[in-house]
Amino acid sequence: MGSLSSARAAGRQPGHLRFPALRWLALAVAFAAPSLAAQQGGDGELTGEGYRFLLRDVEACPGELFTMAVEGQHETSVQGFSLAARYPSDSMTILGVHARDTIVEAVGTDYIEVKISPAEGVLVVGVLVDVSPPFEGNVIPPYIHPLPFLYVEARLGPAVEDDLVVRLEDGLSMPPIYNVFVVDNTAVPVDELTEGRVRLPYAEVPAFLRGDANLDGARDISDAIAILAYQFSGGERLECRDAADANDDYFLDVSDAIYLLGFLFVGSPPPPPPGPAPGIDPTPGGLGCECPLGWIRVLR
After folding, report:
1. What is the pLDDT of residue 132?
2. Residue 49 has what pLDDT?
């Protein structure tokens, strides 16, 4: 097994380093489960309040690459941190983790250890800022707003149909890794285990039956009467003008009533889709449908 090596000594850019599995024993010691006293607090003791990781929500379509930002917020300078998260590996593939263009890279971090376990759906990361000569006392300084720490590069599965959740969880991997910051050589637990979502870009679109002007779910003479009444005698407002546009010419006028009557009594062609069952307008024209028969969730 290899030994720990310095990113600086090796002349490599910090932020995307991978080391042998033995390194996790050292990281597990550095980021061990916080003591009960540290969690409970007391005079002068750190309680973890004001220490958290934020997994930022991201939007992606099935099969697409995406990047989820992991941000950190801490009330004092930290020497490092460890992060453990569970993700749905059957629906997404983590391709890598890096710290490019983050505060972690800017302070000249010595070590970043990344372990991705697809079989368990587990991601663990350990970061040590200044642990190799020359010791310069580097730390990650606090800031009033959360700052990017890491970026997770991943791909969404091609058959995903709903949003996915990536959730922080303590004690994952072996040896177990916890979500902690290191302050004055002490492991400080985060004050909450947060989660981030990979959201599919869904939109709710109206479902209607073209020609069904009165929205009773059928096309009959009452719809033609509703169109004519609206046009000429101050009839009730049409709640789905797209449905009343029977000939789909993007206008609402007497021609729609004539077209519908031709379909009903003369054997003329039926109104264009959606039909004969309610559905999505394949030729949206902007007339509007405020109160459709229903709503259908589709990818944008």
Report:
1. 75
2. 53
Q: Between the CA of residue 179 and those of 122, 141, 151, 236, 249, what are the distances in Å?
A: 13, 18, 17, 60, 59
Which residues does the chain have with pLDDT short of 70?
Answer: 1-49
How far is residue 22 CA from its own chain's centroid?
A: 33
- Domains (range + CATH), the chain: 23-200 (2.60.40.680), 203-299 (no CATH)
Is residue 109 within 8 A of residue 7, CB to CB? The reply is: yes
- Alpha-carbon distance of 123 to 172, in angstroms, equals 8
Owner of token pair 């959201």 = 199
pLDDT at 40: 41
The residues near 147 (Cβ < 8 Å, ≥ 6 apart) are 71, 72, 73, 102, 103
Tokens representing 189 are 């637990």
Check residue 216 and give its pLDDT: 96
Q: How far apart are CA 27 and CA 32, in angstroms?
A: 8
Supply the pLDDT for residue 291: 93
The pTM of the full predicted model, rounded to 2 decimals, is: 0.70
- Residue pointed to by tokens 């970026």: 151
Residue 123 and residue 55: Cα distance in Å, rounded? 13
Q: Which of 21, 237, 202, 199 is nearest to 116 (CA)?
A: 21
